[in-house]
Amino acid sequence: MTVNHYDAIVIGGGHNGLVAAAYLARAGKKVVVLERREIVGGAAVTEEIIPGFKFTEFSYVVSLLRPEIIRELELPKHGLKILPLPSTFAPMDNGDYLGLWDDPDLTRRELYRHSPLDAEAYDAYSRAMGRAAKAIKPLISLIPPDPSSLHPRDLMGLLKLGQYAAGLSEKELYMIAKLVTQSAGDMLEEWFETDVLLGTKAASGVVGTLLGPRSAGTAYVLLHHYMGEIDGAFRAWGFAKGGTGGVSGAIANAALALGAEIRVGSSVAQVIVKKGRAAGVALDNGDELQSKVVFSAADPKRTFLQFVDPKYFPDEFIQSIKNFRTLGSSGKLNLALSELPDFTALPGEGPLHRGAISISPSLDYIERAYDEAKYGQFSRRPFIDMIIPSAIDPDMAPPGQHVASCFIQYAPYDLEGGWDDAKKEAFAETVISTLEIYAPNIRRTIVGKQVITPVDIERIAGITGGNIFHGEMLLNQIFFLRPVAGWADFRTPLRGYYLAASGAHPGGGVMGAAGKLSVQEALKDGLL
Amino acid sequence: MKTYDAIIIGAGHNGLVSAAYLAKAGKQVLVLESRAIPGGTLVTEEFDGFMADMVQSGNLCPDIIRNLKLARFGLKPKPVSEIPAFISLLPDSDILVLESDPVKAAESIKRFSPKDAARWPDFLTFMEKATKFLESAYDTLMPRLPKVSLSEGYSLAELALDLRLAGRKNMLNIIRVIPMTAVEFLEEWFESEQLKAAVASVGIHGVTLGVMSAGTTFNLIHNWLNRGGLAHQYLGRAGQVTDALVAAAEAYGAEMRLSAEVTSIKIEDNQAAGVVLKDGEEISAQTVLSSADPKRTFLTLVGPMELSPTFVWHTQSIKMRGSVAKLHLGLKSLPDGMAADTTYTIAPALNYLERAYDAAKYGQISEKPYLEVTTSENVISIHFQYAPYKLKQGAWNDKRDTLEKLAVDTLAVHFPELQSSIVKSKLLTPADLETTYSLTEGDLNHGQIMLDQFMFMRPIPGWSNHKTPIDGLYLCGSGVHAGGGISGASGRNAAKVVSKEI
Amino acid sequence: MIQLLHTPFHERTELLCQPKNWRRWAGYLVAGSYEMSLDREYWAIRNTAALIDVSPLMKYLITGVDAALLLNRVVTRDIDKLQVGQVYYTGWCDEDGKMIDDGTLSRLDETTYRLTSAEPSLRWLTMNAVGLELEITEITDSMAALSLQGPNSSSVLNRCCDNPVDEIKYFRLMHNELDGIPISISRTGYTGDLGYEIWIDAKDALPVWDALIAAGHDFGILPVGILAMDMARVEAGLFMIESDYTSSDHAWIKAQQSSPFELGLGWTVNLDKPGYFVGRPALAREQREGSTWKLMGLEVEWDGLEALFKDVGLPPQILSMAIRASLPVRSGKKQIGYVSTATWSPLLKKYIALAHLQKPYFEPGTNLRMEVTVQHHRQYAPARVVTLPFYEPEWKKR
């Protein structure tokens, strides 16, 4: 008989839920993580879908995982290794390519082939983005104050925010203002003229959004991705040993070592509310667990619309959560390959296979891909971000063989007529035929594949709408507006109930910040 | 030789408002206009015997009308009962009539969605709060961040207070909706496609953005404020408004010279020293206000050599990209079913509008355009979107017939007699708007109304306070904060800044 | 494919470079030194003739009626005074009057200029050329460059060039021919000795190298790497970007930036030239108000240094090459500056350094203390502020 009394219950064993549990355990609290699936990790899982081939099913790279979390939870001791993912290779329609290599001189020389001005602008741009990321970074660890509130906590927060802003130079302040309001395309066109460079850079501004590179606000998404780069000296994008499942595994091990309990196969039906406070949860199998507080690491819609009786929330709050944009726009194609894809533009095995491979020949290419998604179609020529985990970590596939993880945009959740097997197959075919243009051998090397649509992300990982960020990183959905204006500090209108995942500030990516910050805030409330 | 306290470049509505304010404050002011008539884009001109408001029409800020006592100079606001309806033309001869009277409007909406009809009054209330907030923002000088002076800080605090006074929920809501797409915003309110699309069209009016572009909610509020609602509430013909402004400015002592094109601004040791005219004449003044757009002002009139490279770069990066064409049709008589002094919109569905915009992104003319049509007794003026300034293929002069045919055919679906009643037409492509009305890239707003070009970022972050890197040179046109549309707010604000300094 | 570039002389230098200590310079590989010790290479600069491959220098050709307008706008010196055949050394600044880069600017004819820089400058030049009628061509890869330095350098050139070089005055240039190959020779260098820089079409690089080596045989010519040049340039009081100052483009914070005044380049800031130039308002202000930092020479007092080592039973131990490391400089217990490059001077027999010092400690003759590492312990050796350069032979400018 398990004892069902806890200090804290964490719903969802994704990376944020696990981080929250680890920090709660670290603070000496008795905590249990309830995971619906038989494995932990949420969207950060590695599964052997085809024997011998390990697929990083959903999220596949790490750049945003907060270094302090790695240090404080001693994740390396629990198996975390983040391997370099140093370059980006973008094949072009004319048979040429653009390589952004692991060295500024080499990259400048490579860019110089395409445009001498861009070669120099690229350095200046990287520095400008680095400065912007440095300037904006403190915001991430700041609890967003509610600017309309007169609560001392918010006033203090505003004061801190003011001090932070005052510490920035005029240039930095304006740069940030531009960045959060501009489109990635407009911003990049101020710097560059080379199509493939514009396309490749802009692509990272649209990841996880149902927006095109010409949509305002995408420059911020671009910056969000740059946050990883700012710890430049400590490495930018990386691939976790064992895939992102390796990250979840390490955090789970750390949480266990700190004394947290993790229950898999435990699907939460409802949060139990007593005296206006979250007091535990009821599982689908009828079991009830009691606790002083409950953390939800699920997305905001499930957190507020599914787990809790709406009567505990103000109508407007419910309305705002309903308005929260969570429509997924990206899919995945995970491939088991008998050999490496061979790119016509740069034949043979080489450094390109150890980095990102980006199908993003121009801004218009990505914008057109988006146009189709706007009207409910998947892109006929999508943006593809491919990495080959087995070229970085040979343990991911049988010797000599490979796995490829293709992130694809756009694949709208709301596909016209809905997703079915035939459409999934057509979608996979679109991706393969697109890749084939650049790497003609790819089709015959495929020994197995897994197609993931936003609907699958919703079904398997339990994220409403299948949005990889639990909600788009839009201007009206970030900082003090995330997930709902006035409720960006991880607290919710239900006392003792906290939001601890990507749907909260500071947002998506394998970052872990929401998990950590939510615990930090909850510990201040005296309920634990 | 006569000396002036200030020279104002351009006798558009903003230039004239600045001139009138400065003259009224006792300054010796000279306005220089390149064309033979004053008004800039606020002009009523003749084509083949027909009179049309050629580019824009509009509505000056009420306080400008009051302060400059424009009523004395012939400008009288229409009574509310005369405010025209805003009519959305729908397929199958259907129409949605949005009258300024909310009860009547709700009546028309009811046919499409009773639920939406019920929400209409609340929506109007929200828009009123949002426009009120914007109005006070446009009445506030944007300071340079983060070095906010005490008085600037005070007016900013007032702005924050205005926002806060709208109520806590409203405050967060206004902040929240500003960056939203018109589609998202309207979907929170309504379910009827026809209603959403009709209102959303005002959110894309005049800008090269689509209804699914972030920030079009802001443009909706901006246009709502400038129009005085959904439909244009005209004070009168464009030319009448200009005439009143000219009369006022001259009565207060301003001088105006027409056909006097300024080709450069004289600068001595980083200080404005006067202007040079096309014929070589030089006129000296220590203060120069330019109502030309910022690109033209800095890159042509000042010249890049006088400015720092970063400033030049930022100026080059200002997004103009006009995509509006104007087509005026002189008619025997209005076709059957069309009323005079009315605003019609062809915006049947959100996807229709978005697809029209898609073309513009790739430098193509919309095959199925968004049109806004304003009518008088025998002239209809069509605002055509999108006709991008930068065509991917071909030149504008070769596209005139295509565009004219597209516009007429699109409208003729709803008014079959239209074709046969056309006597004359006058088309202004974005290229014409640039050449004739000095609008860089044909941008009516002197810079796109978009999030990264609004408030303290208009035209360039740090330079939204009408000042420029050149001492004594000020911007007073639509390209600076409070600008875009016919409100005169930036002209008024610039005059306030200048009169404090000279 | 994905690798650093070779200079046009690589075929020769590759065989000569014994220690294989290749250094990266602007995306190229160049020899750090050709011999196992720097001694002979250093003394070739000071005593005979040193042949140094400086091809990685960034080079731009600016040509057109508005070329002078552009350059006057970008650099701090007055380009209207630069005559055809003359070379200026100059820095250029950002809008805040902080140094972006420095290099030489040669006027090749009425409307053609050649600018060298350490960092890529095409973007900056282009940003400043809006609306101007001119063409900017980067010629870094297509133009090879050799620096021939040392008291015998003129003799070497006279032996192999068609026209004698004796008439080229300091910071002037001439067109010449060598075995039928057109070359441009400027009397410039980075060693503070008599010396020339030779500008050659990349395709002619090898024959020119061979001809110079042959002609120099009797004059003691030696291929010299950039490590020996680094020692000589400190003696000459010449600083280097990224080691002695940070380009304002690259600086993360204001404190990392330097103005030309702070680097001792006040003489290159021509505030009396007409019109706007980039950084002018800030530079005028700094000239009025004075600078708070200055780059000066620092000479370590040998006796004091010896005493520190003696305390642990060692003779003084100084690396026999330039050290590009930041070393604190103190007055009493207080840090008042830092050394950016220090070197043993084999000629002067002194331990010398380029030091950034705060007001008022930059006055010549000020006694300060500079960090030295003595048997793993950080110590402070007495040092004296001196004006730059440390060494200037009378034949350098003659």
Question: What is the domain total for the residues of chain C?
Answer: 3
CATH T-level fold name of the largest domain in chain B? FAD/NAD(P)-binding domain
Instruction: Specify the helix fraction band of chain C.
Output: 10-25%
Enumerate the strands of the largest sheet of chain B in spatial order, edge to edge or round the barrel. 6-5-13-14-15-12-16
This entry's quaternary arrangement is heterotrimer
The low-confidence runs of chain B, each spanning 5 or more residues with pLDDT under 50, are none
Number of separate strands of chain B = 17
CATH class of the largest domain in chain C: Alpha Beta
The level 1 CATH classification of the largest domain in chain B is: Alpha Beta
Question: Order of SSEs of chain C, N→C?
Answer: EHEEHEEHEEEHEEHEEEHEHHEHEEEEE
Our measurement of the CA-to-CA distance between the termini of chain B, rounded to an integer number of angstroms, reads 20 Å
> Which two protein chains have the largest interface (Cβ within 8 Å of the partner's Cβ), and how many residues from each?
A-B, 36 and 37 residues
Q: In this structure, how is the largest beta sheet of chain B organized?
A: 7 strands, mixed
Task: Count every helix of chain B, treating DSSP H or I runs of 4 or more residues as helices.
Answer: 17
| Number of self-contained structural domains of chain B | 3
Give the CATH H-level superfamily of the largest domain in chain B: FAD/NAD(P)-binding domain
In short, what is this structure?
The complex is a heterotrimer of chains A (528), B (502) and C (398). Chain A is α/β, with parallel strands linked by helices. Helices cover 38% and strands 18% of the residues of chain A.
